[in-house]
Amino acid sequence: MICHSPLKLSLVVLLTALGPTLVGCSNVTTHALNSEGVRLYQNGNYVQAAEQFQRAIASNPNDADGYYNLASAMHKNGKLYNRQEYLLQAEQLYNQCLEYNPDHAECYRGLAVLLSETDRRDASFRLLEGWASRSPGLAEPRIELARLLEETNNIPQASARLVEALAIDPHNSRALTALGRLRELSGDTQQALANYQRSLAVNRFQPEISARIASLQAATAVTTQAAPSPTETRTVQQTQPNVRY
Predict the structure, then answer these.
(1) Rounded CA gap, 30 and 67, in Å?
(2) Which of 86, 118, 154, 185 is the most buried (most CB within 10 A)?
(3) Same domain (yes/no): 160, 217
(4) Same domain flag for 108 and 173
(5) Residues 6 or more apart from 169 whose CB is under 8 A from it?
């Protein structure tokens, strides 16, 4: 997740997926190359970033994160320059990443987005459903399916997947945030607020969730103060949720 959606934006951005410290790097050289690649990627230098990620893979061919990083860079380059061969290479790299780490959540996300962008949404669903089936103890496959279902405006099924995710991991802040977003979209402000507050209690480093809680609380206060009399009708404007998960 699709160009305008939160799904697509999160799938190809390395900042939230890996961060400047990265994970899974088996040696100092690989770590340094991946870190430099991430810095270049975040600055919009996608071609140079890809070069660093290629060097990182050469340094450690068994590191799944290196394949994911390079796939993300090629994915970005393919869209930016309209190069189908780059997108094909990105797809191959995403699959290589999953060979080395079958539960690499960011890689599943990236591959699902690429499949959807290339008019293979059904394949995206099969990919994520297969992951969920193979990993019944993980919440992440259900969260990714919920994102894809929201993309297709299937809010009831998306909510059901998030409920499944929380049954597996009741303290998953992403699932709580996602469910709060869907509750808010459906007009259930009080339940949305409760979900956001639970998410923030689990992970307090979510400024966008803090801002959304404050906004909902302010809107609720205004609504209470502006309650119409029996002979008067008033409306209160409420912004749409812009939180991402």
Answers:
(1) 12
(2) 86
(3) yes
(4) no
(5) 139, 175
Global pTM value: 0.80
pLDDT tens for 164-202 read 999 999 999 999 999 999 999 999 999 999 999 999 999
Cα(240)–Cα(179) distance, rounded to whole angstroms?
15
Buried b (16+ CB within 10 A) or exposed e, 53-78: bbbbbebbeebbbbbbbbbbbbbbbb
Same domain, 57 and 155: no
What is the domain count for the chain? Answer: 2
8, 112: one domain: yes
Q: How many CB atoms lie within 10 A of CB 52?
A: 24
Distance, in Å, from the CA atom of 63 to the CA atom of 96, rounded to the nearest integer, reads 10
What is the domain extent for residue 166? Answer: 145-223+238-245
Burial class (CB within 10 angstroms; exposed 0-12, middle 13-18, buried 19+) of 140: buried
Q: Give CA–CA dist 9/2, Å, rounded.
A: 9
- For residues 181-202, one letter each, b for 16 or more C-beta atoms within 10 angstroms of the residue's C-beta and e for the rest, the string is bbbbeeeebeebbebbbbbbeb
Q: Are 93 and 175 in a shared domain?
A: no
**pLDDT 10s digits, 15-72:** 333 333 334 445 789 999 999 999 999 999 999 999 999 999 999 999 999 999 999 9
Burial 159-168 (b: 16+ CB within 10 A, else e): bebbebbbeb
The CATH number for 106's domain is: 1.25.40.10
Q: Is 59 found in the same domain as 8?
A: yes
